[in-house]
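Below is a filled-in request sheet from our internal design queue. Each sheet records the structural input a requester submitted and the sequence that came back. We keep these sheets so that new team members can see what a complete request looks like end to end.

REQUESTER: design group, bay 2
PRIORITY: normal
MODE: inverse folding
CHAIN LENGTH: 276
BACKBONE (tokenized):
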């Protein structure tokens, strides 16, 4: 596995590749990322992972400074998984000048995560477009845990006619069903036990929908009340049409339930698809 930090060296290295699959990450890698690498391996000869904690997608009040930076461990995991190339630029390489030319994402980016993290998807879309231009992959893999991000990446590719395909990876969970996330390492032991409640309330909504309950408002309210009663601060619980991410209607068949809530200092998100 090659670890490359310079854009020009990466371009030279990738010139000879006929098919490239790309997994962009911010490091702090876990089994969820490795499952995306495995999807990448099934879809191209050369698998490139990037590791870059992207300042542009963090608000000043957020956890940019304490975001896990575990480059050596990450590279070890990627190497063992058979990744071909790791691109880990520093900020000066990726942002040699102030990045004041930003991508304006579609209105769907202003709700849910965008409502609670203003500017988040501008930062994500901007860095991902840069990374796509640098790596020029044929496919790129994004996890379903960050469902809204996945949706916006699909729109980015579609609306800018980018010559690549976005592939979605399933959420990987612990044995007690906590969605794997780099931020799980912030949880105290007590919080770690409690953290699984987010999955449980989303699962309860899924079960209710599958069993004919379409009162989305009440379902979301119950979920929020249960979380809040156990010390969480809920940002949102939403039941949406899967393809558009607009609120689901009575007759929708394919939906997704999204949730984001804070437990202590840690903000967790999760998502579950449901079809009826
Ligand atoms: O999902 C992430 O880790 C980040 O948002 C991404 C896509 C690597 C962009 O910085």
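RETURNED SEQUENCE:
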């Amino acid at each position: 596995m090659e670890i490359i930090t310079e854009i020009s060296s990466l371009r030279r290295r990738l010139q000879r590749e006929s098919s490239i699959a790309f997994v962009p990450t911010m490091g702090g890698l876990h089994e969820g990322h490795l499952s995306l690498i495995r999807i990448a391996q099934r879809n191209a000869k050369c698998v490139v992972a990037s590791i870059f904690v992207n300042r542009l997608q963090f608000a000043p009040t957020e956890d940019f400074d304490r975001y896990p930076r575990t480059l050596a461990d990450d590279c070890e995991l990627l190497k063992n998984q058979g990744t071909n190339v790791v691109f880990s630029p520093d900020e000066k390489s990726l942002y040699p000048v102030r990045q004041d030319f930003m991508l304006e994402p579609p209105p769907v980016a202003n709700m849910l995560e965008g409502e609670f993290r203003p500017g988040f998807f501008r930062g994500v879309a901007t860095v991902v477009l840069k990374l796509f231009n640098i790596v020029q992959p044929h496919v790129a893999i994004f996890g379903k845990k960050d469902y809204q991000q996945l949706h916006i990446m699909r729109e980015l590719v579609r609306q800018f006619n980018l010559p690549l395909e976005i592939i979605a990876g399933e959420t990987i969970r612990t044995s007690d069903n906590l969605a794997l996330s780099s931020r799980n390492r912030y949880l105290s032991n007590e919080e770690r036990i409690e953290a699984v409640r987010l999955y449980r309330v989303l699962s309860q909504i899924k079960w209710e929908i599958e069993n004919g309950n379409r009162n989305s408002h009440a379902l979301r309210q119950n979920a929020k009340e249960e979380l809040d009663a156990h010390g969480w601060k809920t940002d949102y619980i939403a039941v949406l049409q899967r393809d558009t991410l607009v609120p689901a209607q009575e007759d929708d068949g394919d939906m997704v339930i999204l949730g984001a809530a804070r437990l202590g200092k840690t903000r967790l998100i999760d998502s579950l698809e449901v079809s009826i």
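SHEET NOTES:
- The domain at 182-269 is CATH 3.30.1300.10 (Pantoate--beta-alanine Ligase; Chain: A,domain 2).
- The mean pLDDT is 97.
FILED BY: M.R.
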